[in-house]
Structure formats: C-alpha cells, structure tokens
Amino acid sequence: MVELSQRDKKILKAVVVDYIKSGEPVGSRTVSKKYMTNLSSATIRNVMADLEDLGYLYQPHTSAGRVPTEKGLRFYLESLMEIEKLGKRERDAIRRAYLDLTGGVEEILKKTSQVLSNLCSQAAVVLWPRLTATKFKRIEFVRLYRNHVLTILVAESGIVHHRLVTYDEDIAQEELDKLSNYLNDILKDMTLGEVKNRILEEMKEEKALFDQIYNRAMQIMKKALQEKAEEAELYIEGQANLLDNPEFADIERLKRILRAFEDKSRLLKLLDMTLGSSEGVQIILGPETETQELNEISLVSSTYRKGEVVLGVVGVIGPIRMDYPKIVPIVDYTAQVLSELMENPENMDTSRS
Amino acid sequence: MVELSQRDKKILKAVVVDYIKSGEPVGSRTVSKKYMTNLSSATIRNVMADLEDLGYLYQPHTSAGRVPTEKGLRFYLESLMEIEKLGKRERDAIRRAYLDLTGGVEEILKKTSQVLSNLCSQAAVVLWPRLTATKFKRIEFVRLYRNHVLTILVAESGIVHHRLVTYDEDIAQEELDKLSNYLNDILKDMTLGEVKNRILEEMKEEKALFDQIYNRAMQIMKKALQEKAEEAELYIEGQANLLDNPEFADIERLKRILRAFEDKSRLLKLLDMTLGSSEGVQIILGPETETQELNEISLVSSTYRKGEVVLGVVGVIGPIRMDYPKIVPIVDYTAQVLSELMENPENMDTSRS
DNA sequence: ATTAGCACTATACATTACAGAGTGCTAACA
DNA sequence: TGTTAGCACTCTGTAATGTATAGTGCTAAT
Hints:
The structure is a homodimer of 353-residue chains. In chain A, 50% of the residues lie in helices and 18% in strands. With 353 residues, chain A is of the alpha+beta class. Chain A has 3 domains: 6-80, Winged helix-like DNA-binding domain superfamily/Winged helix DNA-binding domain (Arc Repressor Mutant, subunit A, Orthogonal Bundle), CATH 1.10.10; 88-128 and 233-350, 2-Layer Sandwich (Beta-Lactamase), CATH 3.30.450; 132-225, Heat-inducible transcription repressor hrca homolog, domain 3 (Enolase-like, domain 1, 2-Layer Sandwich). A 5-stranded antiparallel beta sheet of chain A has the order 7-3-10-9-8, sandwiched between helices. Chain A binds a DNA duplex (30 and 30 nucleotides) through helix 3.
C-alpha cells in the first residue's frame, strides 16, 4: 500500500470538499483554480489519475471529473476533514429549542429530532432510551376485561411503557393492586435490566411454586417486560428534507429509501450498531452496512447518556454526500445538550427564568 | 342551471372512469370506442364541448382530450359512481389481519392503517379515538421530581394518555396516591368529556376553596386533561405508496405533500371535518378544503364507532384521481370491522381459536 | 340529431448538430 | 526530474429541427 503524499491528500480533500458542495464530478481545472492556485490543472490531472488507481476516486465516464469513492470518503472523514466550529448562535439556537417544553422526556426527544432535521436540512432520527438502561420507577396493573391486564411501566425518566397482557386467570382489580404494590416495593431503585434479570432468576426458584401472589406478580411482570420487536422505538423527522437533495430527484431511489424508513426494524439495527460505540460522533456510510436498502444514504450519529450510562442514539440521515463538517458538530452538540437534560431534567425549567 | 341528459351523464361518467384508470386526458375517440360504441366520436365531441362549457370537464390544451374538473369529479362521486362490491376474499383478508394481534387498541389502530395502505396502495391515516368520547377507567399520579407529577390516564378502551404536569407545590407520592384514589372513586363510569366538564364546573364552587385534597386533585386532573394541540393523535402509513402514482413523479409536488403530512395539524383539521359526519364513507377532494397544501390530494374516510358513539376516523389519502369504486368499499368495510372490534375487544381472541 | 370528412393544432419523440467540460498524452521547460 | 502548455479526443447536455400522433372544431351531408 502506497502512502499518500501531503500534496495527494490535499488534492483528495479538495475533490471531496467540492463534491460535497456541488454534488457533481469535479474536474482538474476546478481544483486548480479554487483550491490549489499554485498548481496547474495538468499536474492535478496526473495526481487525480493516481488517486483513481489507488481507489480513492472514480470517474463516471471518460470526459467527466472525479467523484470520491466510498474509500475516498472514508479516508476524508478519518484524516482530512476539518470540522467547523459551532458558532455561538447555533449553540444558542439548539439550547433555546428546549426552553418552552413543558412535557416529559418524550417531548424532549421529539424536539431533538425536529431541531436536528431543521438545522441540518436532512432527516433526523432519535432512538429512545433503551429499556434496560433506565431505572424502574413504578408499575401499575389495570384490569381491562376478562383475562386482560393493562400493564403500565414508568421509568425514572418519566417514559411510560404500556402493554396489554393476557393471563390465563381472571384477576380482580383489588388483587392486581396488591400485586403492583408488592412489585413497586421490591423493585425500587433497580434498573429495568436488573429487574428483568431478577424476575427471570427468581421465577426459577421454588418459592414461586408456593406463594401465589408472588408467582402471579412475577408472571405478569415478565410479560409486561417482553420486548416487542415491532414497537416504534424511534422518531424519524424531516423526511421531506431529503427531497431537497438533488441526488434524490430520482423517484425510484426515493421510493427505496422511504420504504426503508417505513420498516423501522432496519433502521433500528443500524442505530443499534452505534449504541455500543465510544463517545463522540460516528459516521456510517450506507455501502458499509451491506444492506441493500440503505445503500444510498449515510448516518451521522452520537449517543446520549445519563451520567456514564448510554441511553440512546440521535443522528442525521441524508445522502452519502452530506455536509459533514457542518453536521458533525451539530449532532455532537445536540447529543451533549440532550445528555445534560437527561442528567437533570429540572434544568429545563430553571433555564427558562 | 341546465340539467344533464341521460346521455350527457353517461359520457361524463365514461370520461371520469377512463381518466381515473389512465391518468391521462381522454379523447372523444376513446369514449366512443370503449364506452359508447353506438355513438361516433364526432357526437361525443359535441357533448364534451357542452360539458366543458358547463364546467364539468377541462381541456389542458387545444388538441388534448378532456380531464374532469373538480365539479365533474364531485358530480361523478355523488350520482354516477358504481361502487364495486367487496369480494369475500378481500373481506376475509381484512378480518384476518386482526387475528394475531395481542396488544391493545393502539395495535389495532396501527394495524388498520397498514391494512388500508396495503389494500388501497395509497397512504392511509387513522385518527385516534377522541378523548372526550371514551370512558374513564383510571387515573394514576407519579411524582417524578420536585414539583413534577406524571399523570397517567387510562381509558376504558385501554388507551393510555400520559402527561407531565407541574404543580406549584411539591406533593409527596403518598398524598398523590390519595388524590388518585379519590378521583378514581368519583369519576368511575363517566366519559372523559363528562369528566372534564364536571371538573371545570366543580372548581368554580366554593368547596374547592376549603377542602385542600379535593382542590389539589381537581387542579392536577384539569392539567392532565388539557388537550395538547401538538400531540400526534394519528397514524399515517404507507406514504411511500404515493410515489407509485404517476402524478407524483413531480418532485416539487411530492415535497409539498410530504410537508403537509409532517405538520399533522392540517391533517387533523381535515379529519375533524369528517368526525361529525353521519355514517358511511365520505370523500373530500383537496381543492374543496381550500387549503393550499392539500390541493393535490383527496381523502376517502369513514368514522368508526363504539355503539352509537363516534370514536375516530380511518381513511385513505391519495391523488385526486383515485380508484374510488374500489377504495370506497374497502374503507367502508374496514371501518365496520374496526367498530366491531371497539365494541367488543374480546372478539379478537375468540375468533383466533 | 347524427356523422363523415377535413383542416388545424399541440405534444411527444427521435434525430441531428453543437458547445462545453474534462481527460490523457506529448513535448517543452526550469 | 517535476511541472506545465498545448492539442486531440470523448462524453454529455441542450437546443433546433422534423415527423408522427392524437385530438379538436367546424361544415356539409345524411
């Protein structure tokens, strides 16, 4: 593998930057004039031919300029990109967006997706806090009708999960209240991950066989906690923004992408990939996922946290050609602000005054 | 206003039907050949010219065929359309879709939007049961942090509304439990509309000034019931289906429509219009709403009910040129099935066996 | 009242021509 | 030896042109 010289990198960078701006293949003349006035277009041409041989650039046809390949883009993202610094004005705009919210965490998350999609002029996506990461606050059982119990699970963050479970006996509301009281008592201050484990564990023990109340409580609770794969655990916002990108003028392409959005499971998988990652912004290029449907888009994302615990993911989805230097710091900062809000929800109110 | 002769109507109908099928202006020759073999194209031409003068048809340019105007379409829908009968196969398909659902009403509604968008190959929309129409089942208060109470309202249908309210005093969880117990007691068996009225009414009375528990309960309950205008009270499904319509090949048009969908308030208003309507399917053509954003689409909708009480609306959204004879009965039947399910949720389980 | 026939018109489509942008290569230059 | 000017070549996009097609309105004949 040949090392790129300083000059090669500079030219590669110029091509990527210009391509990101214009969306069109960039020729040697453009690079020479706009980015490297000390070199002639002929020289640039030679270098670009080399870069093409090395797989960083690609030529749509003989007499066209060059377009970065996935490899070229990735190299740019890793080593060449100069992230813009976020201006005070933008930082304020992001913070201010949260000021007049009165509702709970859901509202904050929804607002976040709006902020991101507006500021970046692309689609934005927000993955909800994972159940396992948040703390248990309260459980409530409501008998709706025969054999059917509505379970309402409240996380410490204020997020509410509810679920209708069936139980093979019909339990009166009075007894359900006892069960929930019991559970509220013993599950206090655990994370939902711990809750789940504990329940699975204790159901194995003999005690379950003899203590009916205990047994029922555990059974219902277990059902309440079952992850429903279909559940919409994410917001997508600003899909219409995607239409502003010239690369999506092609209807067929657009259709593929919108369909991918409707079936949220694929996106979930994508976002899950970034959940485990370390701090900071991550960029996933569509082709890297090897998922046909996401081939033409890319994701700029970051996790948000409460203290050290990763809760979820926020990100921006757009075409592979995105204005990364602008978007990366926005996602970064938004995720930070969101983490602060998660840490201390009362902030929101005090900052209003 | 001149009355249309039988023949005029037949020709108008032919134009509309053919236009709905093909999406292109239909000429006299086509009508003569495909729909009225007993008449020559010249005769048809004369009639069509008359229909144009009367405002039922419109000619994009001198040498093109005719396209129905809004007036023409409306006339067709009211008096000429022959609704197709829904085959047993389709009826079964709709019923079967609900069989394997385990969750509550939300899941049913979501499924409904999927069913409609699939069967009609357009976007589908489902308006949730209005708060006021459903019966109160239970209220729960959870203290999240200082001055912040999470209120959880369960309707008899199993729909859960939750909301974070602030209260100017910090109330301990023990007291909140008392308050909710009190409310659960006195609000039993009322509809949420009645609940709201009763609370507003009683807060005026003097009792509120003296009885602190009573007072607090009412205050918080009132806040919990406040309709949040922004709340997403509807599902939209199958937006990508719209891309299959040739009329939406134009990106600009598509953009306008997707933006209209993102701002749900406009759609809500549209659906509200049909809420008050009598039984059966209603069709609203975009231009009739006089809302710029909805100008190019139309809505086929029906209410769904529990007994005599109208709960919400289901519908199909597509281009003004839609296959109404096919879609109307689908919407109609789906709304019926949905009403049955609302009436008696246990149906779902029994039919599974 | 209906229709055949004809002149007329607008669109859609294919063909052609041409300008523009870009390349690779060669030869000259510092 | 690295850089550059110059030139022939290639591909695309666009504008201009001609032609086929589908449709109309009108008139005169049935």
